[in-house]
Amino acid sequence: MRSALTTLVAGLLLQPAMALALSYDALGLNALPDGLVWEQGDPGQTFGSSEATRGGTYRATIPSYPLTLRTVGPDSNGATRGIVLDNQYALTSLHPNSETIVPVLADSWAYDDDGKTVYFKLRPEVRWSDGQPVTADDYVFAIEFMRSEFIVAPWYNNYYSEQITDVRKYDDHTIAVTAGVKKPKVDLQLSVGISPRAQHFHTLTESWVTDNNWVIEPNTGPYQLTQESVRRGKGKYLELERKSDWWGDALPQFANRFNVNKVRYTVIRDPNIAYRTFEKGDLDTFGLVLPELWHQKATGPLYDHGYIHRLKAYDDTRQPSYGMFMNQGHPLLGDRDIRLGIHHSMNLDKMIEQVLRGDYERLPQHYTGYGDYSDNSISYRPFDLGLADEYFSRAGFVERGGDGIRVNPEGTRLSFEVSYGTPAHTDRLVVLKEEAKKAGLELELKLLDSQNAFKLLLEKRHQIGWSGWSTGFRPAYREHYHSDNANKPQNNNITNMAVPAIDALIDQYRIEENVDTKKSLSKQIQGLLYEQAAYIPTYMVPYTRLGYWRWMKLPADNFSTKTGSGLFSLFDSVAGGLFWLDTGLKRETRSALKDDAVFEPVLIIDETWKPNFGG
Q: Which end of the chain is more exposed for a tag (fewer CB within 10 A), N or C?
């Protein structure tokens, strides 16, 4: 039977009409298969420090305010999505060093003989932000939610129908989740270890998208967005508060973590202003991966006198796909010869040396660093004016106009817009633009703010997108390259790839049970993607570099991880929230600045996880 739940706490007033909480039918524990072997996993190496203290506000920056607080549906897949989503914990997670399964919202699990189903026992102490318990109903509802047409999220509709085929409730704290195909245990866990949705909070109607644009949804993580973020901060800042009675505080794996009371992200659109704000002491940390920051700006008295520390930490993991994504829906970019000519017109080596001080390395292909799932024989195409001329001529662009740019017999110029959303990348693109002129190719640089640049890509309105995509545990092909996602807005196939042979391999890859065959299929797909030449890989950065004020503290040991998920990561369920803010040291530092006191400079180079290709 259905029973109403209590009203949300005052911190979550911005919401649609409260849904009636429904209780789904339970199969009963006697319906569980006989002989299940329950495992509890092992948090393994934990990262918190006994020296950590609680308190203070961590101050960071974001380049733009999100277009919505929703994590699904139109405009939800923006750069700030993780701020909300990272506090929606899942059943289990993956240890960043050992890649073993770590319990999070579930405290144990068992595998079915079918190779597709995992049974989970839920932690009974887990609570939503509003104090309501998280139960099996929230996982059954999560599948209903993700399959609903009302959330306007076709990719999720598809994934939670084909890849997650069933969620069953045995009692309030026992569920089973079934995948669409058999998988090895670790892969299976990552597929079915889903996050719950607050069933008592959502009402799925045709107006769900608009009703929930600025709603603060309950979560299970240690922090929650504040009302202030929407009422007064909209367009200016996002703020999260730590929950005073968070359920996870009682677990050893969360000890001495998530130490700051508040996190505030201030919108600063200009990165130069953001850096000056950091040097004034109004931001606590600042990423210094950009060479001009690390080599030029991160110098002088603040660093030499020990007020700001510098840290470089390597990681050995799957590489994000930084590159240039060509929209094959464009009349000219649908021609493979033109795409190949563009490849050979990009002098990326010169750009890396001239603008990036040689700090970055060339990225071989979209799927680099996935072990046996990557085809290491595939590499980037070199800058070669002879080959560029050959391909462009084959496409009919033989003659050049008075400005040196190629034209075809119809008078069409060989000219394309390159859309991007990071002002600091302009210098990189200027080098590529100037070098491309040697090949008779014009690149028109189109700078947008980060949210609108990303939206342009998702809506397939770009010509060439300068972008980067994060990684997953295994190569993900369907979202980026299957024709089901081509020529449709709001998905990640931003090259509009639609090749039947690639589709067939992707479909087979998704359902393949044999690990060796799956690895072989992965490499075949990469080979065909290379032949299509719709993506130009640019560079990889196998390390993190940052500056932080001396009042920001990290554990003395084990603060970095193989995947780079430690350091000043805020919310990650396994390795996030390690740092703390020493308020006494902050007062001391502020006073010392006025007195021109001098401390020892600090530069940390952590090579614990330096990969073979790192430098």
A: N
Distances (CA, A) of 350 to 10, 326, 437, 575: 56, 21, 14, 37
Q: Which is it for strands 262-267 and 57-62: parallel, antiparallel or unpaired?
A: parallel
186-202: b (≥16 Cβ within 10 Å) or e: ebbbbbbbbbbbbbbbb
Q: Which of 94, 88, 105, 90 is nearest to 45 (CA)?
A: 94
The pLDDT tens digits of the residues spanning 274-300 come to 999 999 999 999 999 988 899 999 999
* Cα angle, residue 323 at apex, residues 88 and 470 outer, rounded to 5°: 15
Q: What is the pLDDT of residues 135-184, one digit of tens each?
A: 999 999 999 999 999 999 998 999 999 999 999 999 999 999 999 988 88
Residue found under tokens 């800042």: 237
Q: Which residues contact 300 (CB under 8 A, 6 or more apart)?
A: none
> How large is the angle between the packed helices 385-394 and 336-343, nearest 10 degrees?
160
CA distance 109 to 102: 11
Q: What CA–CA distance (Å, rounded) separates 390 from 385? A: 9
Q: Provide the CB-side half-sphere exposure for 92 (13 A, CA).
A: 30
Strand runs (DSSP E) across 180-225, as ranges?
A: 223-225
459: nearest Cα among 492, 418, 481: 492
